[in-house]
Design goal:
By secondary structure, this protein is α/β, with parallel strands linked by helices. The chain is built from 19 helices and 11 strands.
């Protein structure tokens, strides 16, 4: 079971808020918040795309307007205001079904480690393994829920239908742990180049198991520099030996093994970067991994991306950028970015005593969440690209406003600290859920790892 000291919780809180330009002190200012103009909420209501429910078993008719909203986009990035909200997970499952069945999307990618996600992908494509165990094997408590497991099982059912010639894939794009990727690299090298495998084992030893990897950031800088240099040399050897390796085994095996080594390099950089540097490195790496996924799929492949609002936002973290910002530079309008907001209700997060359920009241009166709630609809979406270019609504949408944001951590003693200042236009589309509940846990108890931030 997982436990976390209160000191670590508060440090994580302060660091994450500082990174996003919203400190605890500024969030609790005595200054009277400016009310949301009535015209803004009226505009949200007039442009709302009402949704019937979040139940993934329901008909998709209410999602048909999204054929126009999505258009010919290659990437649809779906955010979330918390990592533990049942309705967000269900809504994204519904959107996946719609994008697959009505718009030809064939890849689903989630904010989870790529090497570990391959076990889920094997189940989705081939029916191999236990999907619940594979989901738990991604370490993140955030996704280890009945809602996500239900989506994975739907993906498998879709692929089992012989009428569906184009099969769905389930892939991660994160890189916060290296050890599975290390094992994959060493296993491949033992087949194609035993001498290089022995060298790789020595270089990658500091990242080869849970205990070593946990301590890596505290290891001497000289050791970490030597490891980073060794990983670079291994990648150089991989690329130089591509022809001989692929002659002995398949091109596909080389591509997968080489990307496992890239994941190791990314993880090492994240571990070595420190609290502030890791945010930029991680988001850059996630954007690179999504690009890699698309580059290794047939031309024109469409992908739905699942991550936190902070990662999909095109605005970027102060001094660090964001995955969405980097992807927008590469794909432009071929990517549609969707933020998910809520007004009140329950969610799951790590707090005092570990992972548990929290319940919050209505959003702050000057927040973007409150402006959406004032539209008077319990569940809807709005395309911000249809907003006027001049006037009060345009000025409001062009200005930063507070948005409730909960990552891995929550502290009910400082509820106002869990808002960040964002420009609404850092999202193309906003989905709004008035009242939320916590996800349902899978039955199997699982040890999970804690990763700071989102």
């Amino acid at each position: 079971m997982f436990s976390i000291r209160v000191g670590c919780l508060l440090v994580g809180l302060l660091v994450s808020q500082a990174l996003m330009g919203q400190g605890v002190g500024s969030a609790t200012s005595s200054e009277e918040p400016a009310p949301v103009p009535k015209q803004v909420s009226e505009w949200f209501r007039s442009k709302a795309i009402p949704l019937n429910n979040t139940n993934p078993d329901s008909a998709l008719d209410d999602l048909f307007p999204f054929q126009r909203v999505i258009g010919d986009a290659q990437i649809v990035a779906m955010g979330e205001a918390t990592h533990g909200t049942r309705e967000f997970f269900q809504l994204k499952h519904r959107m996946l079904e719609f994008l697959v069945e009505k718009m030809g999307f064939t890849v689903f990618a989630i904010e989870g480690n790529w090497p570990e996600s391959l076990a889920i992908n094997d189940y989705v494509l081939n029916g191999n393994g236990d999907p619940a165990e594979a989901l738990a094997g991604m370490y993140f408590w955030t996704w280890d829920s009945q809602e996500v497991l239900g989506m994975i099982r739907w993906m498998r059912r879709f692929n089992q239908n012989p009428a569906h010639v184009k099969k769905l894939k389930f892939l991660g794009f994160d890189m916060q742990t290296a050890r599975v990727a290390v094992a994959n690299v060493e296993r491949y090298l033992r087949k194609v180049d035993p001498d290089e495998a022995r060298i790789a084992a020595k270089i990658l030893a500091p990242l080869s198991d849970a205990g070593s990897e946990k301590e890596y950031s505290r290891r001497p800088p000289a050791l970490r520099r030597a490891t980073a240099v060794g990983i670079k040399l291994l990648l150089d050897e991989f690329n130089e030996n591509r022809a001989s390796y692929t002659k002995a085994f398949s091109e596909e095996e080389w591509i997968l093994a080489q990307h496992n080594l890239v994941i190791v390099r990314q993880a090492e950089r994240v571990h070595s970067a420190g609290q502030f540097g890791r945010l930029r490195i991680r988001d850059v790496s996630m954007a690179q991994n999504i690009t890699w996924i698309l580059d290794n799929e047939p031309p024109g492949t469409k992908i739905m991306v699942w991550a936190h609002n902070g990662h999909v936002s095109t605005e970027g973290f102060p001094g660090a950028g964001s995955m969405g910002m980097y992807l927008r530079r590469m794909y432009g309008t071929r990517m549609v970015v969707c933020g998910l907001s809520f007004n009140q209700g329950s969610f799951q997060a790590v707090g005092r005593g570990g992972l548990r359920e929290f319940t919050v009241g209505p959003a702050l009166s000057d927040s973007l969440d409150s402006a959406l709630a004032a539209a008077g609809l319990s569940l809807f979406a709005v395309d911000l690209r249809e907003a006027p270019s001049t006037g009060l609504v345009a000025e409001w949408l062009d200005s930063p406003h507070r948005l409730r944001t909960v990552g891995a951590l929550y502290n009910e003693s400082y509820p106002e600290a869990f808002y960040i200042s964002v420009s609404p236009r850092s999202f193309d589309v906003l989905f709004f859920v008035d009242r939320t509940t916590a996800p349902r846990k899978n039955q199997k108890a699982v040890e999970f790892e804690f990763h700071e931030g989102h």
